[in-house]
Amino acid sequence: MLNRRQWLKAWSAGLTALPGAAQSGLVFPGKRSMLVHNDFPEDLETPVEYFDTWITPNASFFVRQHLPRPKVDAGSYRLEVAGMAASPLKLSLDEMRKLPQYKVPATLECAGNGRSNFRPRMPGLQWKKGAIGNAVWSGPRVADLLKKAAVSANAKYGNFDGADAGVAKTPDFVRSIPMGKLMHEATILALEMNGEPLPEIHGFPARLIVPGWDGASWVKWVNKITLSGQPDGGFYFATAYRYPSRPVSPGGTPKPEEMEVIEGMAVKSFFARPDDEAKVKPGLVKLQGVAWAGEQRIVRVDISSDGGGKWMPAKLASEDFPFAWRLWTFDWRPGRPGRHILMSRATDSAGRVQPVESAWNPSGYLWNAIDRIAVVVEG
Ligand SMILES: Nc1nc2c(c(=O)[nH]1)N[C@H]1C(S)=C(S)[C@@H](COP(=O)(O)O)O[C@H]1N2
Ligand SMILES: [Mo]
Known about the structure:
The chain has 379 residues and is mainly beta.
């Protein structure tokens, strides 16, 4: 495993700083200026003002990894499909490219997005709004791979491992996905992201796309799928990324057996523009943002400028795909100069409505409270 200096040296050859490189002086290959939570391994947040397009460009897409990122050699790479299957596979990248390829637009959000808002605070990366992005992913369906391997009818899970390996006290990152979700037509092993080969930092050469589920399921650098009757017993599936099945009082500790795997996501929306605390001219003020709800569809977003008394519908953009976020806009005409609080609230196809308070939980997952920004209208 490379140490940090060797790592940076290995990268410096390909360093391509884009306009607006990081204020901290840290630049990352192929990335715009990002909010840097960790530089090694990289945890990079997308500044909220970049969220003005339906597709999040690869250069703006957030990054999360628990372990130093592996460099995978495309030529010697093999995807292994093993375990409960009559015809186990070892596929080269070329063989994977020859399978039917599918395009899936889908939003990827870290379960910890928004963690910095919880009180009391908890350990973990203090993400603000930007551990989320939307891309078009393409590659073979996982279902096609499993059929090719003649998966056993008794297999209940696919346990996905990537080329990154455990280091010191940090265990290997392995995630289990139940067979029902794996067989879904939108669950693919992406070889491309927004029409480009998957960037190394996002899982080259292959990453799992689990549309509508949180980022922890979207295993990067996938090189082995083990079909099993059991989920993986390791830390990242058996312990981490779990959410209490019953409400927990803030600061409380649920019992381990009350912690469930996160499947699907909460309903949420937020403002991308204007910035919180922005000064704006009187007259027409264009508000814009994003909304998404995991496996559900966004059916409406409402805006309030009076603290939640009256709600007015935002205009939803035309791009409307399952598993992908929805952009929205709202033409606001403030009645008076001074400071205003604006709120955005999404509703989804299951009737879920973004709540006033987001339920506290020990790891700070699934923050989805109604978004609020302050805007100062000049006199
Ligand atoms: N192999 C591997 N895959 C991984 C991770 C990891 O640490 N190792 N992190 C996961 C988590 S928690 C998230 S939120 C997403 C982030 O994907 P991104 O870096 O492409 O945005 O990758 C997931 N896949
Ligand atoms: Mo995550």
